[in-house]
Amino acid sequence: MIMDGANADAGKMGEIAQLERRSGLLNRRSFLVGSAVGLGALGLGGCVTSDGMSLAEAEKVYGPVPEEKFPIPAVDVTKVDPKYFRRTVRYETKEAPGTIIVDPSNYYVYRVEDEGSATRYGANVGRDGFLWSGDAYIGRKAEWATWTPPKEMIKRQPEAAKYAGGMPGGLDNPLGARTLYLYQNGAYTLYTIYASSDPETIGSGITSGCVGLLSQDMMHLYSRTPVKTKVVVLPA
């Protein structure tokens, strides 16, 4: 289980990832991926992926979202392994429809649907030392949320202190366009499911225990997930 005694406000928005300094600047990728990213571009290997989605379909699903408060650019789908594209799959579970199930071993997030099916999304998950498992629920949700690094993170990485008062929402904000906050027993766990604009991180363990989906996938999940939705994180 993932209970944390830290004050919820102090830990607001979750501890998303290890910071790194690159060219003297802190940017979105610094917060999210640290030194773990280096996967390179993954070609789609032709017009049709192994999951049956054509390149044209993938580009449509992960296309730009210009009507957002901060217009979201298209995903470079060549940087995502096709097996992590959103799709409906057979999924047998005793959990009720609407439940979110995180499978960190395989880098997937499932939303349980009716009749033995689920919507499956590719994800990034916690790196070694930050993995956890257990039951939680969505305690709150936000669009273009302010990100505030927890005190523990600032202590480890003083570079984050400049955002101790909060980093406003936007494309450079680590939480991205949509955020679901995980709670247990009425307390914020410091973990979130958030929107990532870094396609090369999908299918890797790079965060401090949070779970990231591509922005277009996160918006799809967010719109179908009310507060109090159950979340099950499977053992890694």
From TrEMBL:
Residues 98-234 form the L,D-TPase catalytic domain. Keywords: Cell shape, Cell wall biogenesis/degradation, Glycosyltransferase, Hydrolase, Peptidoglycan synthesis, Transferase. Pathway: Cell wall biogenesis; peptidoglycan biosynthesis. One of its GO terms (molecular function) is peptidoglycan L,D-transpeptidase activity. Pfam families: YkuD. GO terms for biological process: cell wall organization; peptidoglycan-protein cross-linking; regulation of cell shape. PANTHER family: L,D-TRANSPEPTIDASE, L,D-TRANSPEPTIDASE ERFK_SRFK-RELATED. Belongs to the YkuD family. This is L,D-transpeptidase. It comes from Bosea caraganae. The lineage of its organism: Bacteria, Pseudomonadati, Pseudomonadota, Alphaproteobacteria, Hyphomicrobiales.
